[in-house]
Specification:
Elements (H helix, E strand, L loop, with lengths): L8 H21 L7 E4 L5 H12 L3 E6 L2 H8 L7 E4 L7 H8 L5 E5 L22 H7 E9 L8 H10 L2 E4 L4 H4 L1 H4 L15 E2 L3 H9 L9 E2 L1
Parallel strand pairs: 1-2, 1-4, 2-3, 4-5, 5-6, 7-8
Helix pairs in contact: 1-2, 4-5
InterPro entries: CRYZL1, NAD(P)-bd_dom_sf
Protein name: QORL1 protein
Length: about 230
C-alpha cells in the first residue's frame, strides 16, 4: 500500500495493526458520529489507546476503564484530553452504573470491549481477568439503538440476553481485523486508516532487545516502533 507523503514511517507502522482494528470497529462496524457516547474498555491497552484517539477525532464523547492506577494516569495524560476514566482496579466500581450516571440514564451508544466475562465469578476460569465486565453489565449500559463491538470470539448470548438487546434495538458485531486480508473488496481501504495517532517516541535499534524483553515479560502493555 503506498504511504501518504504526510505520514511518516513511524506513524504508519504504529497505525496499521491496532489502527486497523480501531478504524474497523468505529468506522465500519459502529459508524461513530459526532456527539455519540463511546465506551472503550481497558483504554490503556494499545488498541484502547488508539480507539480513544480516533473516537475523539470523530467528535465522540469517550468513556474508558482503567485496570490500574498507572493506566488511569496514562489515560488522563492523553491529548486531546476529555475521556472520562473509570478506575476498576479495586473491583468496587460498577461500570454499568457509572456509565448510566455519565449518560444521564440513557446508556452508551457504542461499546468496544476487550473481552467479557461469560459466567459468574465462581464459574469463571481462574485464567480469566476478573477486571473484565460481565456480559450482562454491557447489555445493561448499552443505550437504545446501541452497538456492541466485541473481541470475544466465544461470546454466548442466552435468550434473556437476546431479548434485552431486542427491546433496545441494539446490535452485536464481532471485531476480526483479519477479515481485511480475506476480502478483496476491503484491501484497497487500507489507505483510509493511515492517520496521525499520538505515539511514544520510536526507539533506536540498539534498544530493541531490551524493549522486546520487557514486552515478553509482560512488564509493559504497549507496542514499540523500532527506528532503523
Amino acid at each position: 500500500v503506498p504511504k501518504p507523503e504526510k505520514v511518516c514511517w513511524a506513524e504508519a507502522a504504529a497505525a496499521l495493526r491496532d489502527g486497523l482494528r480501531a478504524y474497523t470497529a468505529l468506522h465500519y462496524l459502529a459508524q461513530v458520529s459526532p456527539g455519540t457516547s463511546v465506551l472503550v474498555l481497558d483504554g490503556a491497552s494499545p488498541f484502547g489507546t488508539i480507539a480513544i484517539q480516533l473516537a475523539h477525532h470523530r467528535g465522540a464523547k469517550v468513556i474508558s476503564t482503567a485496570h490500574s492506577l498507572e493506566d488511569k494516569q496514562y489515560l488522563e495524560r492523553l491529548r486531546p484530553a476529555g475521556a472520562r476514566v473509570i478506575d476498576v482496579s479495586h473491583g468496587k466500581i460498577d461500570v454499568a452504573e457509572s456509565c448510566l450516571e455519565e449518560t444521564g440514564g440513557l446508556g452508551v451508544g457504542i461499546v468496544l470491549d476487550a473481552g467479557v466475562r461469560l459466567y459468574s465469578a465462581e464459574d469463571e476460569p481462574a485464567s480469566r481477568c476478573q477486571l473484565l465486565p460481565h456480559k450482562h453489565d454491557i447489555i445493561t449500559l448499552l443505550g437504545v439503538g446501541g452497538r456492541w463491538i466485541t473481541t470475544e470470539r466465544n461470546l454466548q448470548l442466552d435468550p434473556p440476553d437476546s431479548h434485552s438487546l431486542f427491546l433496545k434495538g441494539a446490535t452485536v458485531s464481532f471485531l476480526n481485523e483479519e477479515i481485511w486480508n480475506l476480502s478483496n473488496v476491503q484491501q484497497g481501504k487500507y489507505l483510509d486508516i493511515l492517520w496521525w495517532p499520538q505515539l511514544d517516541e520510536p526507539i533506536p535499534l540498539y534498544e530493541a532487545k531490551v524493549s522486546m524483553e520487557i514486552v515478553q515479560k509482560n512488564q509493559a502493555r504497549k507496542r514499540q516502533v523500532i527506528q532503523f
